[in-house]
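Hi all, long-time lurker, first post. I run a small reading group and we've been trying to get comfortable going from sequence to structure in the token notation. Rather than ask abstract questions, I figured I'd post a concrete chain and ask someone more experienced to write out its structure so we can walk through it together at our next meeting. Sequence below, copied exactly:
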Amino acid sequence: MSENEEEVHSSGLFLGITLPEAEELDDQEFDIPQVDTAPTLESILNEDSLLDVESSSFLPDDFTLSTLEVEELEEGSLQPQEELEVEAEVEEVEEETATTTPAVQWIKDPPLPAVEQDEVLSCVTQKGISAQILSAVGRVEGGGPTAMAVRGIIAVGTSTGQLLIFDSSQVLKLCLGSQALGAQHGPISALDFNSDGTRILCGFARGQILQWDVESGKQLRTISNVVPVGNAVVILKFTDDPTVAVCNDSSGSVYELHFKRSLGGKTWDSHCLFNSEKGRVRCVEPLRLPDEPPGHPAAQLLLLAMVSLRKLLIVCQRPEPRVIHASPLVKANGDCVPSLCWHFLRSGSQADPALAFCQGPSVSLYQVKFASESILVVKLRELNLQYEIMNFKWIRPSTLMLVDTSERVHVVDRDSGEDLQELELESLVLVSTSTLPTSSQAPEGDNVTEPVECKKITYQSVCAHGGAISLLGTRSVRMVTLKTWEERLDSLVKEQQYGQALALAWKFFERTAKAVVGLPADKQMRRDMVANKVAEMLLAYVELSVRRCPEQGKLQVMEDYFQKTIPLCVTCCIKFNKMEVLFGEVYEKLTHHAVALGVLFECLQPHISAGRLTSIPPLVMKDMVGHYEDQGMTQLLDDLIPHLDVMTLDLHQVVSLSRQHKLCDALIFVFNKGMNDYITPIEELVGGMARASPGVKPDDHVKVGNKILVYISCCLTGQAYPFGVIPDDMVQAVKSQVFTCLTSVQVKGIDSTKEPYPFIRTLLQYNTREFLNVLALAFEDLEQDQQAIEFHQRMIDILLQVMLESTDFSPSQIGSLFTFLARQLAKAEDHLFVNRQLFHQALDFLCNPEDTSQHAERQQALLELLHAGGTAYFEENKLLSMAETVQFFQVCEFIYEQKRLYHRIVACYLKDPSRKDQALQYLHEVITSADLSEEERVLFQNEVFCNLQELLVLGARETASLVLRHFQDSVPLIMETLQQDAKLLFEFLHGVFNPRVEPWPFKDASLLGHDFHENYLELLCQNHPSWALDFLKLSDMYRPEEAVEITRRHQVHDALAYLLESQGNIQGAFDVLMEKLKATLQTVVPPTSTEETGDALQAAHTLLRDLIAFCQRTSSTLDSKQREELWFPLLDFLMSPSEKLEGLLSDEMERGMKELTKEVLDGMTTYIPLMEILQRLMQDPVYSVGKYGEIKTLIFGIVDAYIYEKTLLEATSNLLSQDLHWSLCSLRAAVTRGLAPVHKRCGICSQQYTRTAGLGSRVVLFSCGHIYHQACLQGSLHQGEGQPEDWACFKCQAPNKKWTPITHKQAARDSQCLELDASQIAASDCLRRVFKNPSRISILMDLSRQPSTSVDSSKLGTDIFGQAGILESADFKLNLAPPPLID
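-- Answer (accepted) --
Happy to help. Here is the structure in token form:
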């Protein structure tokens, strides 16, 4: 086959046609253009591909047809220049994608996208009314608009006092009033229709109110002298009673108007509901009931909502006025214009009135509920928004329309507070009425009249009626409504946002969308309407997708395109239950596009697997199966077909495909559900396995074997495969058929000369254990009748015959069989029979000493047999003997455990290489958990002692811990035995005392006496001398003298020094460490290799650090002379090493010694005076002959240390002085602070302390602020003669308060306790009254400026109080109690 032919054949496969069919195509019929020369493969591969501009395939991942512009749909193509640019960009992107971007797995079940742009509002300009407003001044001299009311008809008031009435078609019907009326009463400031729209009330800026008949244009009533002259009518509203209206003027008063007929004339009456002198009302809104439902309880009450400066009020006017709710307002929003609006919300079967209150950025919702005899106002919720609200209206029970101060319209959901849309009102300036006046008077309580910032009031510019909001601007009128659900979808479709349109439709379908208009309340009707609309959108979506498909022939491009468009269509059809659309019109539209059809088939996979799609038309199903077969995705069919309705399948097609590709699930499903045949799948699948080569398990046979075992298990237990249940009337028949099939002696299609029972033999060979588990599960469901017992016995006989008469089964399989038999016999209660000789044969087979292969497998099989109850069929001694012969130690353990011979099990663990490391764990478990008798415990202990050496090798620490904790009484015997083997003894003791183990076993170590500790120290010094010090630091059970002797004998210097230091022999410990240091340095004197010198210096450095630490540690307990005797020998040795060591020092050695000397000097400066160190250095003979430069750095280091310590000392002293100074100043300020009484009266007699007649002239003031007459306090605290003369505050003396009393004797002789006479007290009171504040600080400041004893009252200034003042008295004294001293 040529390359061109291969290319054509490949394309034919993708297009769903075969090569012969492609050769028979008619070029003219399919409009294929003719070419002069056929292209070669090389020219095709190198051709510069240009995509059609209308069909860009490189779309974003979240593709919806919104990327296709409306202009493209209308024009069909771009301009030539634009087309070349787009094609060049597409070609460049295609090349980069083909070379760099790997294939991305496409999503077959995409989620619906989020709805990002959903415009719920429709804003329409009332052109007729707007035109009339613009031309009103020229035609009728009506002036500009000032107010509006809507009730089917529209009324617009003007600044010249004229009233324009428009019908629903925006035709001007009436022009009421005149310019003269406007000149007399001012502009119209308020309008309102009655319920049926036949009457209109008109309020003017100068307080006049008129009532007109809308039908005839006749003026019915002139209402004057209700609103005071100069006040404007701000709000004028009819109530639910057409004969009652309410009026709110600019001063804040509220009036009630009553319309009457008297003697054939129309009269009126009024009275004030709320007077502005008591509190100003800023907004009023009466409740007006809808026509349905009639007879609501609120109809008899005339509810009225009002907002004052401080409160929100709901007033019931009938039968008598009363306030049923009052709630305070938020002070932060006090300067914002409030708004009120009523609506009815359904709660259960009854609709109750709900009040919305807005002020500033907050919206509060209240509902009035009517009980049997009471009215309850409940606050539903409060919304806090991000903008200030100027006006608002209910547009639906669940939706509010708000207008902010920037004149933007917001649609807000009532429940969630979500801002659904924000609409900018371009070039519309809302008409605003008069602003509220301000006042500077502020009475108490709710009658406060506070200044209010002038803001726009639009009460008469925003009107609601019939679900529409009318907005009155200075030059136009606009009506804002909610779009219907279809309009919202159509707007998204028009912008080609199909993904968002479908997502929004799903919200409508599930009733989760907000502000929905036009859908019925019935759930099924709503879903049907939405689904039908979705079907229309999907057809348009598919048609547009097909029309915009990239050019034919580029299969990968087309496939990528449809993988981004078709899945969304399939998902929506299934979500909205529009299968007839998916497999009807959509399928027909895609029939001519093989690539699109293939994508459609593949998109169905996740929906079928999830059970969302179970029925597909037969023709579509046939094409789908063919597509999956052509694309090599037959394994997916194996998963999908069992989820489908069998009536939609082409059984012949599916069976043929299943047999060809070994689709087990599909084959079983078709035969079970389509033909009620449960036998053929077993025959075909197991027969195929039986005909395969024995012992060979290809991957496909493994998969088939696993599935057939599950299938047989389901059939024998009454379950359908792969899910579901078998009908009850067929369960027994299916079980019988499957058993009969399995036990067939010969099977058609399998060579009869082979061994019998091929099905059972094949399944046993495949997986013996699982097949036997399937049979065991089936036998549990069998009824225990004679027929079931016979069948049970027959199956066991067949199994024995098949497995014991064949050499194809392994020991493990034989063991599984006899395990199965043992369990069945135990459950059968003597109903089954198996020759015991067979069990002996099985035992001989498993315990054959000549067979050394598969040892672990044979042992496991025998062990499972024993656990299943096989011990009843064997002689115990023979079984144990055979198990020991073939080293089946786990079997031996099982037998010993049955006989409670636990000591024998220890040997089983130690002899078993695979479990030897578990021996110690077993010992611990037996000792701690088993209920051992005394005899068993002795035997177990002896076994442990006999194998002690081997156990110590396994784990010395665990073994020693075990012995110490559980066999402590035998420790001396063990130690005596181990004395003969020093290595074994060390291992045992090391298991207990090992110092490198964390945490160290203090508990175990304390169980042994000092002999064992010293013995271990001896062994440790011999084997690991570096660990001796660690052991000595951990243990405290040894004798120090013996330990010193041991370490001295073995020359373990660090351990010896530690022991001497702990005994208080500081000099001895120092000498030991010095000797070790000298010995270490002596090893490299005379000079050796550089490497050896470096190692020695490193070791010396480590030893020196230990010496320095030792000296520093002990210096704190020594006097100065002892410190010098400790430090200076070390310094002398390092400064003159040549005198202490034998031999010459190398240059490297000398440099190293200098470094060591520096470290010693740094360490000793804390404990030895610096001058002593410096003098020692100067007297050293080494540096007395001109080598002063060598110790220059040492001296500088000493000086630097001195300067640092001096600076540190000075800084610390300064800080301490500052802290002490601050503390003293704080204490002095607390002690000398002045006190002021908190009350004007004595705390005991309740008389003013200035009135001293008969009570003495002395008062006592405590730090708590309470003041008493001295006589009152003495009479209350000292009633007995023998009591101590201590003073304490009468009110504050309590057990939990630490008040410090003061005696009157101490007060008399203390110069700091000053007294007040009558004139001084009077002057103090006068001073306090003038300043209205008892300022003790100012009084004491004045006192501090005057001489304390030489004050001449004649020389003081003029008496500003008209009497002798406190500052003018020479005998002025304050009797002050000191502040309490708190511990």
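A couple of things your group might point at:
The chain has 51 helices and 28 strands.
The two ends are 109 Å apart (CA to CA).
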